Amino acid sequence: MDKKTKQKRVELFERQCRSQGVPFTVQRRAILETVLEFDNHPTAEQVHDAVTTRFPGISRTTVYRTLETLVQMGLITKACHPGSVVRYDRRIEVHHHLVCQRCEEVVDISDERLDALPVPDTSSLGFEVFDFRVQLRGICRRCRKKE
Amino acid sequence: MDKKTKQKRVELFERQCRSQGVPFTVQRRAILETVLEFDNHPTAEQVHDAVTTRFPGISRTTVYRTLETLVQMGLITKACHPGSVVRYDRRIEVHHHLVCQRCEEVVDISDERLDALPVPDTSSLGFEVFDFRVQLRGICRRCRKKE
DNA sequence: TTAAGTGCAAAAGCTTTGCGGGTAG
DNA sequence: CTACCCGCAAAGCTTTTGCACTTAA
């Protein structure tokens, strides 16, 4: 992610904090900046390791709590695929995942036709849909070779 | 799930075991039958609690291991949404999920237009796609009322 | 017979909680 | 000033592992 986009996201975060009365702390800023530097889907642990270089001594607890806060504020997303570890994702725009059912590897994929998916009417369920993800399930190259 | 369908699934499991040389044990049978009785998405723990009435003394370890085996054999599926606990699902046919980003509740949804999704060509990635799921992300009724 | 599954107990993650002290608004 | 956040340590849950015994094929 280029510097400009990153800065914009941080500024957006600051504005949202101000307007919602949520304290904009150095730790939170550092954690958001760190997540934005990942191209893939880091775990909380990986974010902690990475943010430590920028903010030595920051606690794991703070990282866990802050990541959750960022998700609630819609600044990052939380992805969870088989493998049972929560992963975070700086991408808030639509994209999709290929998930291998054998080794549980996850690969990002973009596809216009998927993005144009007709979102069903869920108003009868009281559900307001903002976003969607498609999980394509199958077998990756490596696992296919093994068989 | 009605008795007949359930029995068919158990028989399918038995046949697959025979042909693949995988031992068809009483425990595995009991676990599969138990999962098939859930309408929703039970956790490994819930499956263990339920199977215990049918098979007292069965170990948690066996339940964990067997659920994974069943997934690998394609007899049940594994669903993982925010909330970080793996859930299992007797449904192997296509269906989709509404996921609340606040409370992480998961609701099943069926929609023909979603089922007709154009699956992109992933052969260049070496990925063979068998199946897909759409995860619709938003806010559920209860959480919307709170705000 | 023999390769694989099962149960137990213990360990190994990952994540949350309680609380005293600190900081943003 | 006051409410909320942070760090620490410890607990809590879910899941996995090693090993001796049992079982399906």
CATH fold-level topology of the largest domain in chain A: Arc Repressor Mutant, subunit A
The value of Rg of chain A in angstroms is 17 Å
Structural class of chain A: alpha+beta
Total beta strand runs of chain A: 5
Largest interface: A-B, 45 and 43 residues
CATH class of the largest domain in chain A: Mainly Alpha
Listing every helix as H and every strand as E from the N terminus to the C terminus, the arrangement of chain A reads HHHHEEEEHEH
- Major sheet strand order of chain A: 4-3-5
What's the tally of helices of chain A?
A: 6
Percentage of β-strand residues of chain A: 15-25%
Q: Give the overall average pLDDT of chain A.
A: 90
For the largest beta-sheet of chain A, the strand count, sense and barrel status come to:
3 strands, mixed
Task: Report the span from N to C terminus of chain A.
Answer: 38 Å
Shape of chain A: globular
Query: Which CATH architecture of the largest domain in chain A would you pick?
Result: Orthogonal Bundle
Quaternary structure type:
homodimer
Query: CATH H-level name of the largest domain in chain A... which superfamily?
Result: Winged helix-like DNA-binding domain superfamily/Winged helix DNA-binding domain
Roughly how much helix do the residues of chain A carry, as a percent range? 40-55%
Number of domains of chain A: 2
- Enumerate the spans of chain A where pLDDT stays under 50 for 5 or more consecutive residues: none
